Amino acid sequence: MSNPSLLILAGDGIGPEVMEQVKRIIGWYGDKRDLTFDVFEDLVGGAAYDAHGVPLHDDTMAKAQKVDAVLLGAVGGPAYDDLDFSVKPERGLLRLRKEMDLFANLRPAQCFDALADFSSLKKDIVAGLDIMIVRELTSGVYFGEPRGIHVEDNMRVGINTQRYTEAEIERAARSAFELARRRNNKVCSMEKANVMESGILWRDVVNEVHQADYADVELSHMYADNGAMQLVRAPKQFDVILTDNLFGDILSDCAAMLTGSLGMLPSASLGLPMANGRPKAMYEPVHGSAPDIAGQGKANPIACILSFAMALRYSFDEGAEADRLEAAIEKVLADGARTGDLMGPEGGTPISTTEMGDVILEALDASL
Ligand code: NAD
Ligand code: IPM
Ligand code: MN
Questions:
Q1: Among residues 142, 164, 214, 314, which one is catalytic?
Q2: Is 192 marked active-site?
Q3: Is 284 within 8 Å of 74 (Cβ atoms)?
Q4: Confidence band (pLDDT; 50, 70, 90) for 345?
Q5: Catalytic status, residue 317
Q6: Residue 308 parent element (H or E)
Q7: Pick from 119, 216, 230, 278: CA 20 to 30 A from residue 343's CA?
Q8: Whether residue 96 has its Cβ less than 6 Å from ligand 1
Q9: Span 81-109, average pLDDT
Q10: Could you say which of 258, 281, 310 is where a domain stops?
């Protein structure tokens, strides 16, 4: 049987720095666990723009469609701020999500015990936190038409359209209910049905799917603004949060701070099963290219490494190996390994991106 294949798109800014550590971990699995991947690499974002004049080359898109999973670092940065909108780095990422039809974006927020003091919230509010945000990723205001900047009556008008079909809401809802059944069996769906028709439809469809097939799962609804407040007030009330593309983007950055740092949050973007039964999939940290620290060896690679752990779990049916990697990370954090973003009030000396990779590899060795 051939090896599973991975396409690595490290991207811009800290993307290549954190992905370097993931590559070492992929190598470790080949050497020590006989779990060898065929790894391909290509460009995305500003790096692809510099090489090809587009943020994602058609050949790269075609490769992404063929592999078993894509691992993405981050895209964007100030050097590309003035580019035409159509070729901005972020368009490359959005094209991957849309053309691979990765409609279910799983963004877990787990607070590791060792970091409970590092959250900007009080320890007892976040200790033991384990929530999963399911963000619809291929529709909504990110992709709705009409869109653009037009001139009307001598005035510029910026337009984006929030648009959801029943089918799009239904498949996102099914993903959330299925996940909840494997967790604590609770889904809270967030929209703004009080002011948006798309929110009314969202709530109706979620209720219909629930009544038809998931009545055993506890379902609640919340307006997304209240949801943001509740996430900060009492985040442990949630198990799975189901929400749309834009609210999910914002709520997941908010959830990141519950875990101590944006540098800790992984994600999996999943689509329909391929012929081999694996879902179409891309794994990426929630954070961006962090221009303020790029090139300095300061980035926390854990979000990207945890994204690879999600790949092991969701694409390769290697749940035990994903557990091993997550346990290694938990151990190094418990032992006090901290990149700069994880410096708590008491301060200390941060370790570099590579040093964090070193100690995680040591912990993996120790797990054998
Ligand atoms: P960002 O996530 O890049 O950075 C926000 C803050 O968090 C910065 O202070 C940064 O230093 C810090 N941070 C983020 N990741 C970190 C890590 N791994 N370790 C340590 N600190 C970390 O968000 P931004 O500054 O709003 O955006 C910068 C660029 O990244 C923009 O071009 C944006 O469009 C892009 N972006 C890309 C993605 C992605 O590729 N998935 C996600 C978000 C933002
Ligand atoms: C994310 C990012 C992206 C988004 C950008 C870079 C397109 O913020 O993955 O959270 O808005 O979805
Ligand atoms: Mn975001």
A1: 142
A2: yes
A3: yes
A4: low
A5: no
A6: helix 302-314
A7: 230
A8: no
A9: 97
A10: 258
